[in-house]
Every structure is written in C-alpha cells, then in structure tokens.
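Q: What does the predicted 3D structure of Lipoprotein look like?
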Amino acid sequence: MRIWKKKKPQDQRVWLALAVLAMAAPVDAAEHASDSGTSEEAQVEDDPGMRLEDAPVQRRIALLCRFGTECYEAETCQSTDFELTVEGRAGGSDETALMAGATLGSVAGDVEALGAFAEGVLSLTGGDLDGRHLLTVTGDAARYSVHYSDGPMVISYLGACEGAE
C-alpha cells in the first residue's frame, strides 16, 4: 500500500527533519530566563506554537504493521509474529513534506513518536533513553528497531505495514 507520494527536492527533507528535531527538543524556561538577565522566577506564557492540528494539509495515520523476521544483536535472525499499530496524524503546509506524530502500539506498550512523511516514506522515532524506537515504512516494506541502553542492545524487525481497518 502506498500511503501518500509526491516528489520534492531532497534538501527539503533535511530542513523538515531539523524542524521536527527542534520541535521535539525540551526547553528549560528558567535556563533561558537566567541567560537573558531576567529573574529565574520569570513567567513564561504558554505558546502552543505550530501544531500538527493547525497545519493546512492533514492526513490520518492508521497502520497495522506485521513483522515476520526478528534480529537480536548479531545473532542469526529468526521467524516471529510481531505486530505494531501506528495511530496518529501528519500535517504540513503542502503535500510534499509532512511532519508526523503517532503512537506506536504493541504488546510491550505504547510509545509516542515524531517524524516525517515525504516521497512515500514515513519515518518515526520516539521513546526515552532506556529504549529508542525507530520505524521506517515505505510502500512495500517496513523496518522497526528498538535500541536499549541496558547492554546496550538492539532488536530489529523486518516486515510490512498496511492501512488499518
């Protein structure tokens, strides 16, 4: 299944990725207040900024990913029957490149992820320092990996995603 596909210059993907990273970076208001010479007690007005819900172009993300191969570290890959649901939204100023936010759901729990959708590729990353998750979906394949700090270790899955019913 092809999700959405429209060609765009490659350099726009770099700027989109930087924008997603900037939006995901936490901001310490007290630190910025002290850097500007104001009191650490400075009041910071809540500003939601640009949100996916505000983008003029909107797409719903609803995928069911099935993975038949699991690879643990450098061991030989083995057969598996692992499923991952992807529920969220993508939005942007036009169809060429969309920012994305979704929940990755599995038997291990839910993970909030951010990323981008461009040229028929959906890429999402999320989690915390204990476990970072990366999902890449193209029209006919999907790759999902989780990098754990304990070890460290990585588990990768190979499969495909389709629109959820």
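A (community wiki): The structure tokens above were generated from the sequence. Residues 1-40 have pLDDT under 50 and may be disordered. The radius of gyration is 18 Å.
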